[in-house]
Amino acid sequence: MRPSPVLDDGHERRQEDWACTLRGRTARAEQRVGGGLRHMSPEPCLLGTTSWAPQCLIYWRTWKQLIRLVIILTWVCLAIFWLFGEQQPVHIKSNIARKTESMPATSMDRRVANLSNSPTVFQSDSAHIASVDPTFISPEELQTIEKALEWPAPPTSMIAAHQATSPYTSSYSLQNLHKSYSVGDVITAIITARDGLKNSKVYGGDFFQAKLFNAELKASVYGEVVDHHNGTYTATFKLLWEGQASVSIRLIHSSEAVQVLLRHRERDPDKVFFVGVFRGVDHQEKVVCNAQRSERLLKASQCCCEYKHPTTGELWFCRRPSHLPCSAWVDHGMGGYQAQLSKLDSTLLHRNYTNKYLPGDITVSVSHRDQNSSKSLHKKTPKLRIVKCVPGLDTPSPVGFYLHDNWTSLMCHAQSFPTANQIARCLKDKQVLMMGDSTLRQWFEYLLKTVPTLKKLNLYTSAQSGPLEAVDTGNNIRLVWRAHGLPIRTFMIPRADLHYIASEVDALAGGQHSVVVFTIWAHFTTFPLATYLKRLAGIRRSVLALLQRAPQTLVLIKSANMGYKDIYGSDWLSWQLDCALRMMFRELPVVIIDVWQMTSCHYSPDNIHPSQEVIQNEVDLFLSFVCPR
Known about the structure:
By secondary structure, the chain is α+β, with helices and mostly antiparallel strands. Helix content is 30%, strand content 22%.
């Protein structure tokens, strides 16, 4: 550095004295040669002489350069350490076939601690991860889940609809039929798939749903279907009530129709498109938006405005408006549907071949088990689980059943909350944050309708997308529901009201008075599976961080439910996402409320928004985990 020309004489003289001192010490140090001290008479820097300036300034400048170099190297080392020193390679290796072990409530804290040291989770803070890996998921885990969800394809290309599996020619029969059955027995139905010409199928891939029911008792239970990949399937049912039990099997989609769904999911992500409103001082513009840089967006003359969330790394794209900057984006809304199906694709997904019951009439009589009988088909009478409803429990199959329209859980001791006072006592001193879609908003609306002391606040927000909030000051209850963020099909709303689940969870302190419940699936059925897995991985990272800083926080996940049957939201698409969600969160001490079985076996017609009877049972199960006993 050059001396400043504006320094006064005193300051300049002090600099000269220091430079002279340094030069003298340097000269004395040079005398240490061969282990001894040799006396040398250095030339002193004498002030006021003509010889001081060139010599002293050379030493002074040399020392300043050395000090500057040391400082630069120090900062470089710190930067390298910050960038690479704290990043530990993380590889998530999932074993899809392994069941998650039961974990008692007392070991929940230990399970969270184990997860923080496990290679299946991410340990860094959210901001750091977002800057390094916005997906929060390793390629290995992504590949493992995608492989587990692979669906068998027909061996040859189909040229006519009659080659597909037909619900009218396929059939089922009961294996090893007996004259009598007892509660707790298991029965198996064999399903034989045939095409429209009554030829037996020799490959699998059909999507069947099965249940056992009694209409008079309003009783039903989910049946698990196994594909043998040769045109035959087995549906297994557990007999759980006395009286008649009838078998019901329906073909949701043929294997050929499933391939149509799969192909359009992966190759046509913007068959649903959205609209963004950009607003300036005196005018506004509407443009097409979506979650990916799709071909339709890229074909635009002006593409694209890219928006990346600073914490989650989630991306959103809009066509660039003609006369406004990208920062002028203020509103989001649903655009429309634009799937391009061939004539054959449309036929395979037509209602004449979709969601049809197979012909058949099989009913068995079930009696109370005689404990002394040696002819029982099952060794032990099933007993209802008396364990508390807490995180970390195994999920049996079936997970429960209906009787007299009341859901009985086979996973834990579920309770019924028929009155407003019981619900209010359960939620007392709780702050409940609900995030998701309209199927979870039904819970909010049910609680608001059932508990008069819950008063909804007027936040002047969208009734469809929220956020919505209700409070009960007497019982110190706060209930919040909000949409899960983009993408979401909704009426036009301010984009500022759409928050990602991960960012909301990151902002929570958590604790014993905090309850978090979320669902996310219905608005992702039109996007590639990888897009959904990346979103789940980000949420998982945030949930893990929440449980690490506040292990007493209760986190629940509402599963997908049945309802849609078309190219935009088929049950098969929902089922795939639901399986992925369970795999992603199976290692965390969270609760999965299995409403898939609750909706698939109920007598009410399929609807993306389940009936009031189903919603009540869903909320009762949810409350059983909030206040277990």
